[in-house]
Amino acid sequence: MSAAPRKIIHVDCDCFYAAIEMRDDPSLRAVPLAVGGRPETRGVVATCNYVARRFGVHSAMSSARALRLCPDLIIVPPDMARYRAASQQIMLIYQAFTPLIEPLSLDEAYLDVSGQPHEQGSATRMAEAIRRRIREEVGITASAGIAPNKFLAKVASDWNKPDGQFLIRPQDVAAFVKTLPVEKIFGVGKVTAGRLHQLGIQSCGDLQRWERADLLRHFGKMGERLYELSRGQDERQVETDRGRKSISVEETYAHDLPDLAACLAKLPELVDRLQARLARNGNPAYRGLSVKLKFDDFSQTTVENSGSQLSNVRFGELLRAGHARGRRPVRLLGVGVKLADENDLPRQLRLFGKDGRPLPDAEPEA
Ligand SMILES: [Mg+2]
Fold it and tell me: Hey, is 109 helix, strand or coil?
């Protein structure tokens, strides 16, 4: 607590995939546009522009439903190669401001700019400069949040979206969180929000009136997080690729996968994406595979082994074991690898136990 407050910027491009499409074909700017799969193949909207959002179209919605809401909607298929090229340009811009960058996706990242000399050390002006360079060099807009920690920076980047930014100074935190709806806390989904509302808790200010022990009793491990985040406290560091412990990809399906066979059918596509993601990260060494499932009742399980072979067969074995724990329709599937850290043997032993079997995973929310 004695250290100076950190300066974290969360940068998030505005409707990224759609923005790239509009940049490359200006005739798409004025029309409702979505990037996603075809409705006849049960495709899903990945991103849509703000014109389409006025019709109620949003990401993760089925393309068929999006077209019912907005019959003039133009749906273009994703072109990941172009999005990745833009993403690399954006990452280079970030690197001009700080080496402490944690990418969350192609267009979103946390930057720790504490102590950086640029713009006389003003994080607000660094955020402005970053957004200006993205506009000028990449040709799209981005929004930014500036705050003393990751949680608040991410909330703030949404505050003046699109093409805006918002600053939460350390001395503003208490007043800011007081009225912040609990839904804005990361990890609070529909189920937890519903339970909080039942207890009469709508805002972080309401949450602050609860004792830590009572929150732990009601919400388990999540209660601890609720206690701290409702006070605007979040000590998580910006984790660069160097410090990263795992790499994973996941997909939330617009239609729940009804059974194990449906889940297995989705596996090759996820493993391909994981492979591409690893390649983008310079193919780091890894020890251990994991499969994550979220069922239709929002319960979640992760199964791991210590394998180092990225194969559909190996992931299939984990998927079978995980599915057997729930035997329900599945709304989300993820596959990942634990990165090897050759210099950190004690941690490895802790991770996998003396017998080489993985220890139960105390999984943090992504
Ligand atoms: Mg974005």
Answer: strand
Query: Ligand 1 centre from 139 Cα, in Å?
Result: 15
pLDDT tens-place string over residues 284-328: 788 899 999 999 887 889 999 988 888 899 999 999 999 999 989
Distance 106 CA to ligand 1 centre (A): 8
Ligand 1 centre and the CA of 260: distance in Å?
32
Asked, as a colleague might, if the bond just before 162 is cis with ω within 30 of 0, I would say: yes
Alpha helices in 10-149 (DSSP H): 16-24, 50-53, 63-69, 80-95, 123-133
| List of residues 6+ apart from 192 with CB closer than 8 A | 182, 219, 222
Among residues 233, 225, 277, which one has the least CA distance to residue 251?
Answer: 277
Catalytic residue among 21, 40, 102, 108: 108
Tens-digit pLDDT profile for residues 244-278:
678 899 888 878 999 999 999 999 999 998 988 88
Secondary structure class of 76 (helix, strand, coil): strand
Three-state DSSP class for 240?
A: coil
Q: Is 108 in the active site? A: yes
Q: Which of these, 25, 28, 59, lies nearest to 43 by C-alpha position? A: 59
Over 50: is that where the pLDDT of 365 sits?
A: no
Both tokens of 97, joined, read 């401001």
Paired tokens of 98: 């700080």
Using DSSP bridges, classify how beta strands 286-295 and 300-305 pair: parallel, antiparallel or unpaired.
Answer: antiparallel
Q: How far is the CA of 287 from the centre of ligand 1 (A)?
A: 31
- Distance, CA 141 to ligand 1 centroid (Å)? 10
- Per DSSP bridges, beta strands 45-48 and 33-36 are antiparallel
Band (243; pLDDT cuts 50, 70, 90): low
CA of 199 to the centre of ligand 1 (A): 33
Rounded distance between C-alpha atoms, residue 147 and residue 154, angstroms: 8
Question: Residue range 39-62: average pLDDT?
Answer: 92
3-state helix, strand, coil in the chain (%, to 5): 45, 20, 35
Question: For the segment 160-193, what is each residue's pLDDT rounded down to a tens digit?
Answer: 999 999 999 999 999 999 999 999 998 898 889 9
